[in-house]
Write a structure and sequence with these properties.
By secondary structure, this protein is α/β, with parallel strands linked by helices. The strands form 2 sheets. It has a 6-stranded mixed sheet with strand order 3-8-7-4-5-6, with helices on both faces. It has a 5-stranded parallel sheet with strand order 2-1-9-10-11, with helices on both faces. α2 packs parallel to α4. The longest helix is centred in the C-terminal third of the chain and has 16 residues. The two termini are 15 Å apart.
Length: 248
């Protein structure tokens, strides 16, 4: 049985490598495609810190970071994966939150209490085009000045790879891994267009968060499991639990 990874490139390659190291056969179907958005900072703001909810936001602006004089600022990252991308890009002061947007909001607020940044200072939020929640508004209500800059978009892929469709048709896929609400929706749309939606939704859907799981449940998936924590190791634990249950 194969495990289907819907995560976009290039992160899906690291996920596949980790799964293969655990003894799994892996199929890749990146259902979202990364596209950088030109960065035009017209705010004239003197930033005190940066906030990032995705490694893709770092990738999108990486070539510009030295010219923008941003690398010297403290950066608040949603989780360890995003933090690693920030360090690779040259940031030296990286503060890591617990893996989701709510945890990042709370970590920024704690950062103000710890004097890492000034509460009345200006926070640059490097964001995607589609936001799951209004972090800027939430922090603004707490007294922070947040400038949101869209640095990338994730575009849905219309079709699943042929081997994935054949895998669903032959009942050769044991579970699907979902990392975001948008990718879950894109996966459902592609599966529907390919005529494999019923087969796709009949197997375990392993989700990084409850927000992601809601999309699958709403679509009629019969086996939706949620990671205990919003990180990949917890998602892998959920996968193993799903596979054991299926074999029992």
């Amino acid at each position: 049985m194969s495990i289907l990874v819907t995560r976009p490139h290039p992160d899906n390659e690291a996920t596949a490598e980790s799964l293969r190291a655990r003894g799994h056969v892996v199929l890749l179907a990146p259902v979202l495609k990364f596209e950088p958005v030109p960065f035009h900072d017209e705010s004239q703001a003197g930033y005190n810190a940066i906030m990032v909810t995705s490694a893709n936001a770092i990738r999108a602006v990486a070539p510009l970071l030295h010219n923008l004089d941003l690398l010297k600022l403290p950066l608040f990252a949603v989780g360890e994966h995003t933090a690693a991308a920030a360090r690779d890009a040259g940031f030296t002061e990286v503060i890591v939150a617990g893996g989701d947007a709510a945890a990042l909001r709370d970590r920024v607020m704690q950062g103000a209490r710890d004097k890492v940044l000034k509460k009345k200072g200006t926070l640059l939020y490097l964001a995607g085009a589609d936001l799951s929640r209004d972090l800027g508004g939430e922090l603004g209500a707490e007294g922070f000045n947040v400038v949101t800059q869209t640095t990338y978009r994730m575009v849905p892929v219309k079709h699943l790879p042929r081997e994935v469709c054949e895998g669903f048709a032959a009942h050769g896929i044991g579970a699907v891994l979902h990392y975001s609400r948008r990718s879950a929706r894109a996966f459902l749309e592609a599966a529907r267009d390919e005529g494999v939606e019923i087969s796709a939704l009949s197997i375990p859907q392993c989700c990084l968060s409850e927000t992601v799981a809601f999309v699958l449940r709403e679509a009629g998936a019969s086996q939706v499991l949620v990671a205990a924590r919003p990180d990949e190791n917890a998602l892998f634990e959920t996968l193993e639990r799903a596979l054991r249950t299926r074999l029992a």
